[in-house]
Amino acid sequence: MLRTLFLLLSKAFWAQRMITRWGPAWRAASRFIAGETLAEALKVVGELNSRGILATLDHLGENTTHADAARLAAEEVMTALDAIQAHELRANVSVKLSQIGLAFDEQLCRENIKGILEKALRSENFVCIDMEDSFLTDATIAVYRWARQQGYDNVGIVFQAYLYRTAIDIQSLAEMGVRVRLCKGAYKEPPERAYPRKRDVDSSFDHLTALLFEISESQGMPRLSADGRVPPVPGIATHDAARIEYARRRADSMGLPRDALEFQLLYGIRRDLQSQLVAQGYPVRVYVPYGSHWYPYFMRRLAERPANVWFLLSNFFRA
Predict the structure, then answer these.
(1) Residue 245: helix, strand or coil by DSSP?
(2) What sign results for the dihedral spanned by CA atoms 72, 181, 287, 150?
(3) If DSSP codes are grouped into helix, strand and coil, which group holds residue 154?
(4) What is the pLDDT of residue 316?
(5) Which of 102, 131, 140, 311 has the fewest beta carbons closer than 10 A?
(6) CA dist., res. 66 & res. 62, Å (int)
(7) What is the spatial distance between Cα 277 and Cα 270, in angstroms, rounded to a whole number?
(8) Over pLDDT 70: what percentage of the chain?
């Protein structure tokens, strides 16, 4: 019930206007968001790197409706790539294609992602294309395929375990040597497109983890780059201890070295688990979101765990 409510609120403009004007909301959101500026986010990445943790920077924003806004969003990503290089950080970037034009002009989106990938090439970095709700899945994969066909191999893509189609999508891209971040999925999806029950999503996540390991093994087990910017295959993005344990056991049984996979977690969640996995010798990458357009991301974090809702309410009563 709460999950559905917060996912609906994530797309409600009236709620966004009300909540973003409420001071305690930002205090609660700042647990999950590194700051509203790139400088604040870079500071967080530096702190993570000092703990042996990698990062991916995400400038928050999605579903732009104007060309100027899409181009500005692309320029912000390129600025972040320059800053990562200038500060010698162990980080890459993540991009939502709807933020750079996909929702209204696919050609503009392709021009923008090409510019980002060119910048990433020059700074010897990597770009991960985030997956959004299922209405954009086909278009997102099409842009990814196009980018690879243009010769860009410094790009990966996210897939979501709760969608029925994901195994087929991954297999269709396997011959490209696709680098995948696997997550459970955080959008409101109809039951004809996604598993509605958690246990089925968990089972799908484990099945897809095994599939990605098999693809990785067949490709000669790509490894983490020396500067930590290019991830190995695959990225297991979850805070679920049971899913992490399954991935560890499966990788061990296949003889995969620990730096041939990567655990990916969200900023502000399970810092103890981040440190534990690093201590065990696994690459760990934290997703570091920043920017003023934090409301939809924050609502999805509230939808994921009831404890996050309590965190918001506790800030309300302290206000």
Answers:
(1) helix
(2) negative
(3) coil
(4) 46
(5) 311
(6) 12
(7) 11
(8) 82
CA 224: distance to chain centroid?
17
- Residue 123 has a CB neighbour count (10 Å cut-off) of 18
Distances (CA, A) of 283 to 94, 129, 227: 17, 20, 12
Residue 27 a catalytic site member: no
Q: Which residue among the candidates 90, 110, 179, 181 is catalytic per the annotation?
A: 181
Show the tokens assigned to 18.
């009300």
Q: How far apart are the first and last CA of the chain?
A: 26
**Angle at CA 89, nearest 5°, toward 102 and 234?**
60
Question: Model-level pTM?
Answer: 0.88
Contact 314, 65 (CB under 8 A): no
Residues 6+ apart with CB under 8 A from 273: 239, 241, 244, 265
The residues, ordered by sequence, that sit 6+ positions from 126 with a Cβ below 8 Å of its Cβ are 92, 93, 120, 154, 155, 156, 225, 229, 230, 231
112 phi, psi to nearest 5 deg: -70, -40
| Active-site choice (58, 90, 110, 130) | 130
* Dihedral sign (CA 141, 97, 111, 115): negative
Question: Cβ distance 247 to 212 under 8 Å?
Answer: no
The set of residues, in sequence order, having a beta carbon less than 8 Å from that of 317 and lying 6+ positions away, is none
Query: What does residue 180 show for φ and ψ, rounded to 5 degrees?
Result: -120, 135
Angle (nearest 5°) at CA 223 between 219 and 225: 135
Q: Would you say 84 and 91 are in contact if contact means Cβ atoms under 8 Å apart?
A: yes
pLDDT score for 217: 87
Task: Judge whether 17 and 302 are in contact, CB under 8 Å.
Answer: no
Residue 190, preceding peptide bond in cis (omega within 30° of 0): no
User: What is the Cα 19 distance to its own chain's centre?
Assistant: 24
pLDDT tens-digit series, residues 297-313? 666 666 666 555 555 55
